[in-house]
């Protein structure tokens, strides 16, 4: 009896085997990779601005962070919301899958949400009959394209929607979006509404900005909150 007890005690006193340095490094790498993937999928993702459609709010070469949690938790790939939080609001700058090519990500500003009536008259935006004096809206061209004629509409000509559009009511579960660079933005005026299901998140900060024209860092833009 004593021999058995002594044998058990001897086993308990043995020091645990140490993990090899390689195994520890691999485990740390795996945990870090999984954590980074989780954050990128559900919380925050980085994007780069490739075009000038959001000038002057966002410049070509701005690197931004997008809050993916703010509008709810979505399953990756299928974009199904499993934990709803809130929908995008007027004025939010949102990143979404481009309706005409879901492989591309677009960034625009939500101008009207579900139930709103949107109308553009000679470049001026009206939502529910109220003129929207957006301080961030920029117009580069003085010329105004007249409204589409019935013949142009029947032919699918949409260029005339740029300065004159609607009135149209935004359907449930949709957004009407526009670029801040109003004369040079391919947006809802031309291809229609954005489905809330394809909205990835809300842009909230510029973490890096690079001017490729003079190969310099735009230091003043770093850390700027996007509004």
List low-pLDDT spans.
1-11
Q: Portion of residues in helices?
A: 10-25%
How many helices does DSSP assign? 4
The CATH homologous superfamily is termed Umud Fragment, subunit A
Query: Which CATH architecture would you pick?
Result: Ribbon
Mean pLDDT: 87
Secondary structure elements and their pairing?
Elements: H1 2-12, H2 21-42, E1 44-48, E2 62-67, E3 72-74, E4 81-84, E5 93-98, E6 101-113, E7 117-121, E8 124-127, E9 130-131, H3 150-154, E10 165-169, E11 174-178, H4 188-191, E12 194-195, E13 199-211, E14 216-217
Antiparallel strand pairs: 1-2, 2-13, 3-4, 5-6, 5-13, 6-11, 7-8, 7-10, 8-9, 11-12, 13-14
How would you describe what is shown here?
The protein is of the alpha+beta class and 227 residues long. It has one domain (21-221): Umud Fragment, subunit A, CATH 2.10.109. 19% of the residues lie in helices and 33% in strands. The protein contains 4 helices and 14 strands. The protein has helices at residues 2-12, 21-42, 150-154, 188-191, and strands at residues 44-48, 62-67, 72-74, 81-84, 93-98, 101-113, 117-121, 124-127, 130-131, 165-169, 174-178, 194-195, 199-211, 216-217. The strands form 3 sheets. Strands 1, 2, 5, 6, 11, 12, 13 and 14 form an 8-stranded antiparallel sheet that branches. A 4-stranded antiparallel sheet has the order 9-8-7-10, with no helix packed on it. It has a two-stranded antiparallel ribbon with strand order 3-4. It is globular. The chain starts with a helix and ends in a 10-residue tail after the last strand. Residues 1-11 have low confidence and may be disordered.
């Amino acid at each position: 009896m004593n021999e058995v007890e002594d044998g058990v005690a001897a086993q308990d006193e043995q020091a645990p085997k140490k993990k090899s340095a390689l195994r520890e490094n691999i485990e740390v790498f795996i945990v870090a990779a999984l954590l980074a993937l989780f954050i990128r999928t559900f919380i925050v993702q980085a994007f780069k601005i490739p075009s000038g459609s959001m000038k002057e709010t966002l410049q070509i070469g701005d690197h931004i962070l997008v809050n993916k949690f703010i509008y709810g938790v979505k399953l990756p790939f299928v974009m199904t919301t499993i934990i709803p939080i809130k929908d995008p609001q007027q004025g939010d700058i949102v990143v979404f899958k481009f309706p005409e090519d879901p492989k591309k990500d677009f960034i625009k500003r939500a101008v009207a949400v579900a139930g709103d009536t949107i109308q553009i008259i000679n470049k001026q935006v009206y939502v529910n009959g109220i003129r929207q004096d957006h301080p961030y809206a920029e117009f580069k061209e003085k010329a105004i394209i007249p409204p589409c004629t019935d013949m142009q509409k029947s032919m699918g000509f949409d260029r005339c929607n740029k300065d004159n559009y609607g009135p149209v009511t935004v359907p449930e579960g949709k957004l009407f979006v526009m670029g801040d660079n109003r004369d040079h933005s391919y947006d809802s005026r031309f291809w229609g509404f954005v489905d809330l299901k394809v909205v990835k998140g809300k842009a909230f900060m510029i973490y890096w900005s690079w001017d490729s024209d003079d190969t310099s860092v735009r230091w003043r833009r770093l850390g700027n909150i996007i509004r």
